[in-house]
Amino acid sequence: MARGDTPQDSYHLVGISFFILGLGTLLPWNFFITAIPYFQGRLVEANSTTGILGTNHTGPTDAFNFNNWVTLLSQLPLLLFTFLNSFLYQCIPDTVRILGSLLVILLLFALTASLVKVDMSPAPFFSITMASIWFINSFGAILQGSLFGQLGTMPSTYSTLFLSGQGLAGIFAALAMLLSMASGVDAQTSALGYFITPCVGILISIMCYLSLPHLEFARYYLAKKPSLAQAHELETKTELLQADEKNGTLNSPQRAALMLDVDPEKEPEEVQKPGKPSLLVVFQKIWLTALCLVLVFTVTLSVFPAITAMVTSSTGPGKWSQFFNPICCFLLFNLMDWLGRSLTSYFLWPDEDSRLLPLLVCLRFLFVPLFMLCHVPERSRLPILFPQDAYFITFMLLFAVSNGYLVSLSMCLAPRQVLPHEREVAGALMTFFLALGLSCGASLSFLFKALL
């Protein structure tokens, strides 16, 4: 912003805080799916603590259809509670929703860590784990919806930072798993250390959120005083548009975003007194971008991790086979996903008016048959057409980077398609459609697994 009275993000503390909050929101989900071999080991036989901590990583048995259920029961509550959050976000203060959700997630994940030391048969362990996943993701939906709503009132770069933090959560979980496998300590100690790690991450996230009210830059954008903030923003954008007309310094996406906010026919009073945002009006402006977000996550969750976690190395037993899936599935996916999310910090292409975005999104459906035809030994219908490890690694590279980039692009474009006072509603709606895509993909994963 060009106005001298607008505070600056000193030392990038607000940006760092939202980056860590993004990390904290997805730590539980990533630690659960990355630990799929651990849970499968506990479910195969009673009192077992193998899996993530053992040595057999070449083809874990998917007892109880754990891969599919952990994905579905993570995304259904996310969908339901995000929908509720979209309508009731004004009824409960942000602080209560965000801090309350973080504390409940912390307590439930501490319970998961404590179960490492508890011996029980597979059926009750499965039930308790599924219940924990349900409630953790219910509060996670409230947390993400609230944070995305706040990010809708801030510059788009902060949405990118938040999404980059979410991408880093998967990398963090994958590295923690690899360290746990290579640590050489006993199984229970290794598992306990693995599950305590996200608890520490959530504690740090809580401290970051508590620090925001003490930062002037955060107070300026999160104070919910649209008349003053939008008046300053409108004047600045008008100046930028005038400069654009003189020397063409703004590119077309920037100009389009500014034109959405500046209506020369409006009186100053209209700008300073915006009406209450309408969900229907906001949806009509962002529906295509929201649909793209749904389709991106539908493709991703339909095969990851339900199908991709079953892919094994074709090289036979050995160290590479042991570490193949943790590295080539989870770590590689999260690294490239994070890279894709981070790319939107440097450019936003295609822009909100282009029809290329839906085309790129639809092309990702090709990844479904490609992964299903990779080296998955447990199959009875489809053949293996891509047995070599190089095929799976190549598919995963393209799959992950396209997921991260298109998700981040959609989340950044949506606030640019609405008026300033509608951005918080747009952020909440996009979070709902994000959850809808995740739930559709999780549901389809049962079908695709049955087709193998």
UniProtKB/TrEMBL annotation:
Q: Which SUPFAM superfamilies match?
A: MFS general substrate transporter (SSF103473)
What GO molecular function terms would the record report?
Answer: uridine transmembrane transporter activity
What's the protein's topology in the membrane? Multi-pass membrane protein
- Tell whether Transmembrane helix is among the UniProt keywords: yes
Q: Where are the transmembrane segments?
A: 12-39, 69-89, 96-116, 128-149, 161-185, 191-212, 286-311, 323-344, 356-378, 390-413, 425-448
InterPro entries tied to this protein = ENT1/ENT2, Eqnu_transpt, MFS_trans_sf
Q: Where in the cell is it found?
A: Apical cell membrane; Basolateral cell membrane
Sorted alphabetically, the Gene Ontology BP terms of this entry are:
adenine transport; guanine transport; hypoxanthine transport; thymine transport
Give Gene Ontology CC terms. apical plasma membrane; basolateral plasma membrane
Recite the UniProt keywords alphabetically. Answer: Membrane, Transmembrane, Transmembrane helix, Transport
For this protein, the record's Pfam families field holds: Nucleoside_tran
Does Membrane appear among the keywords? yes
- Record family assignment: Belongs to the SLC29A/ENT transporter (TC 2.A.57) family.
Q: What is the name of the protein in this document?
A: Equilibrative nucleoside transporter 2
Species for this entry: Chrysochloris asiatica
Q: Which gene encodes it?
A: SLC29A2
